[in-house]
Amino acid sequence: MSEETIFSKIIRREIPAEILFQDDLVTAFRDIDPKAPTHILIIPNHLIPTTNDVKSSDEKALGRMVTVAAKLAQEAGIAEDGYRIIMNCNKHGGQEVYHIHMHLVGGHFLGPMLSQDR
Ligand code: AMP
Predict the structure, then answer these.
(1) Could you tell me the CA-to-CA distances from 20 to 35, 59, 69, 109 in Å, in that order?
(2) Which domains, and CATH codes, for the chain?
(3) Ligand 1 mean position to 19 CA, how many Å?
């Protein structure tokens, strides 16, 4: 049994968050510590700890995460200039919250895909 994170409380609206979209499969809300002018997190409503744990039965929710990201990018006015979608996995990926989430970031030029610094 996987441990719930703070994101489950956001989904159930037990703690405050700026929720931009929610349906039966996914929830999207603003990142509390934005790294770009637009920084939104899109998550499945059911707990999947990491992308290593994704199963074929999760494909509908993961597909919905992408369509919701595209819709929110349009609404934020960043679709034409472009943006980045990021999913971090485990320690080397820099994952901090173990409930998979898609970062939708944009609003200015984001630079090279990966920093060369370690
Ligand atoms: P990651 O490093 O990919 O696991 O990203 C976790 C993200 O969750 C970070 O960008 C945090 O700023 C964000 N975060 C953590 N707690 C909250 C919260 N309560 N509300 C919104 N975003 C959060």
Answers:
(1) 18, 22, 11, 23
(2) 6-106 (3.30.428.10)
(3) 13
